[in-house]
Amino acid sequence: METIKELEQRYHIRSTLFVVLGLYVLYRVSHWIYKAYRVRTRFHDIPSLPRHPIWGNLVNAGERLKPSLKRHPDYGFEEIWRELGEPGRFLVDLAPVEDRGFLVIAEPQYAEALLNSSKEFKYSIPKSKNYHSLKPVIGAESIITKEGAAWKEMRKRFNPGFQPRYIHSLTRPIMSRVEIFVERMQSLAESGITFKMVDYAQDLTTDIITQLTIGQDFNAQSMPEGHGAKSPMGFLTASRRLSETIYAVGQGVGFHMIDPIRPLKSFFYETIFNYKLTAIVKERISSTDTTSKSKSITQLAVSGLPPSKALIRSCVDQIKTFLFAGQDTTATLIQWVCYEMSKASHSEHYAAILSRLRQEHDLVFGPDPFSALKVLSSSATAESESILTSKLPYTTAFIKEILRLHPPRALCAWFRGKQLPCRFLFPLILSLSPACRFTHHST
Q: Are 104 and 110 in contact (CB under 8 A)?
């Protein structure tokens, strides 16, 4: 009898588990179907590729966005835009992969109206939930995800560390890192070895950003792999491995979405990264050095505030954000600058641009190719600021043009219908993305 009761009990538990699991799966499937239905049956007045009643644009848009093409998804969106006759905005229905309909903004005036402040959205429109997947890298309290008054308060706290005069006061340590980068590039060029520039650009931005934000020199450019901060459990290794666990742009739908190892790796490296960074932040906050010139951005941000766990956590998340931005946008800009200048070897137009850049630099810094580093690092703060802001107009224009042609990141946001000074009302609960690449190219 006891054996029969035990079997009945086990069967009952197993049946209960199957029922619970079945209900969960049914809920998830129903939720996906509802999300897809909500988008499929609406927004037919907006230009889009033919939308399948079941698959939406998952197939025809997916052909242009698939990872095997090895290109940024913006190029795929540009193909769709041109195929549709270059409308001011168009819909990409990727539900249920995308929670909402995806509205791509292609007209500069629409993007401008969307980004300008208004009575309804004083600081910015609500930010996309797509940023949530970046939380392990940028932190839950990142300024990137803050909105409204909370964003303004966070920005105000860190503003002193980004004032031009303060940044220019640190020209010498910045130039010393740039000099190492130039030497590495020169050595690699002379060796004839083919290499990926991204690793070297990220090492440079890491060295500069950690020096500015926490006053710590990790020697990312000179540290051999497997040693110090680049050891298997090192600070820099944890930062890079953590970034690798985030879904890559254009990675598509696949095993990575349900990979059980990925979240474990993310948690492991996030724990290491947070632990090491928290220890450094605590040390910087408790530092007795009160001279503003030697203070890091973190010390300036917490000046006058009582130390607390919440404050330390917030500072850690902002530093993670700065590091992520440096390794993504700034390092990418460095690569695009080098790429555009390299065109001078096979294009008369770009050869003329490079020649004019050299003429401007020779006039300001002298004929020595490396004199700019020496002049900027040896000049007083005011003189260095003057050189960078007013004496290099062509160089400044060249960099701005590269940012226009190769914008680092598109904004993605969502909100519930707002009348803008355009010819249409943005639809209800759509994710919005001003497509920087072809918006910039159409100006």
A: no
